[in-house]
Every structure is written in structure tokens, then in C-alpha cells.
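Why does residue order matter? Because the sequence determines the fold. Keep that principle in mind as you read this record.
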Amino acid sequence: LKAVMTANRYHFVHCHSPIGGVVGRLVARQTHTPCMYTAHGFHFFKGSPSLNWMLYYPVERTLARLTDTIVTINEEDFSRAQTFKTSHTFRIPGIGVDTKRIEAITIDRTLKRKSLGIDSDTDFVLLSVGELNENKNHETIIRAIASLKEPTLRYLIAGTGDNNDHLERLIRELGLERQVTLLGFRDDVIEVMKASDCFVFPSKREGLGMAALEAMAAGLPLITSNVHGINDYSIDGVTGYKCSPEDASGFARAIRTMQLDFDLSHQMGLHNSESVKAFDVDRSKTEMRRIYSQFLQDKPT
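Structure:
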């Protein structure tokens, strides 16, 4: 990378991801290249494990000294980055949600639900979208559903990952084969959202959470964890409900409340389809253009 940057003499480098952020900023320092870094969610945050603070926090704090501009995507990270020794710190509304595209997608809800194995109009369909791993925390929702013993609840999980076999075993052990379905990879996620009744997002950590924002744009109420970037848009009692990531009982109560009160969940979904526009992709692009413009003014070529 040092050879590439030396040969091409870039006006500046914009780093992303933890490893790319480390390598890119070290080489930028060695080659005297102006450097910008977007943090797509620090691994240290309120409630995160102590090990995350011991490992990641000192690295980010130290590398901030080598960074001309840090861009964050949630309020907690923005506040933290402002304590670092860097020239400029900005916050953008994530990479942005294409709300117009999502709004334009239409489905035959009955046919779509049938294609997903849901034959009854009275079933209440929960949906999660995300990699099958420990952080996405699908197991907590599966256990919450098992505790409710309500056969009209259906839980769809779209995604692939290392936890697939573990989740399949758990579903069998709890006798939820009819209620919980692992959909695997889907290229029709927005259509599946529009065939669902509620979006569940129990992650232990999220820089922001594009899947939940897309669900809001699709008009769904949310049931989320109360951590990190999710807190930027998930408001308890307004967008839906929030629980601690490991609180299966709390998630169960939220699910049951949402299922029983159609008017409430419907109003929350309508609210979400409007409030999510604060995270629209056009706004993100406008913010990044402004940041690039200021960056280049500060670092003339």
C-alpha cells in the first residue's frame, strides 16, 4: 500500500473499516498523504465489554492523531470522537437509505406471505435481517417466542452465517419448526419486509443498522435493542419498543403488545416511514459533499 500511495501521490485517502482504518492511516502518515477516516461504529460504547475498551479504544484514540478528519455515523461515536486529538470531526446519517426506492416497491401481500410459507392472514409476522452471528442476537428472539407459546406468531430470519446450524438446533429443541424460519440469503428483502408486520432488531452492537432503517422506510414498527447507533432512531413507545439485548422477557412483552394492539403498531409504522427520511441517502450524499469540500479547502493541492 505504501508503494501504491507513493507512486500515485493521491490528493487524500479516505479509510473505512477497523483494519483498513489502521493500515490506511499508518501509510498515509508515512507518505504525507492527507487522511480521512469513517468509523462505521466504534467497538467501544456504553455497555460494551471491557475487553473492547481495552483493545479498540486506545488504538482509535492513538490513530486519531494521524487523522485529519474523522466521520462518524451515530451520536455516541460522534461525542466520543470529539474527545480525540484530530483536526475535524463530523457526523453523517449513515450511508443513507434510498427511501424513494423502498416506497416505490409494491407487492401482493397475500401471495408474498404464501410464498414465505404463511397461509393465515391472522398470523403476526416478525422479521429480522442480518448475518447469523452472535452480535445479531437472533437467539434471544427465538427464546422470547418460545416463552409466549402463541402459535399465531411467525418469525422469519433473512441472512446467512456461522450460527445457522446452532439456530436450527435451537429451533428444533424448542419445538418452533412451524413458527421460526431461516430464510437464508434473499434478494427480495424489501418485499419480505412489506409482507411482515413488525421488524425485530436485537443486535448487541450496531454502528447504525441499515436493515432497521430500511424496515422503517417499508412502514414497519420496530422492536430493537437499546444500544449504540440503534438509539439514534429507535425511540421506545414511538418507533416501537426497546429492550436490553439479553432481555428475552422484555422482548416477549414487546412482541405480544405489538401483536395485540394493531392500531398502535400501525401508527408506529406510519411514523417510521416519515421519520426515517432524516437518514435518506440524498442527505448523506449532501453531507459528504460538504465534508469533502471543507477537507480539500483545508488541504489544498
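The chain has two domains: 2-96+281-298, 99-278.
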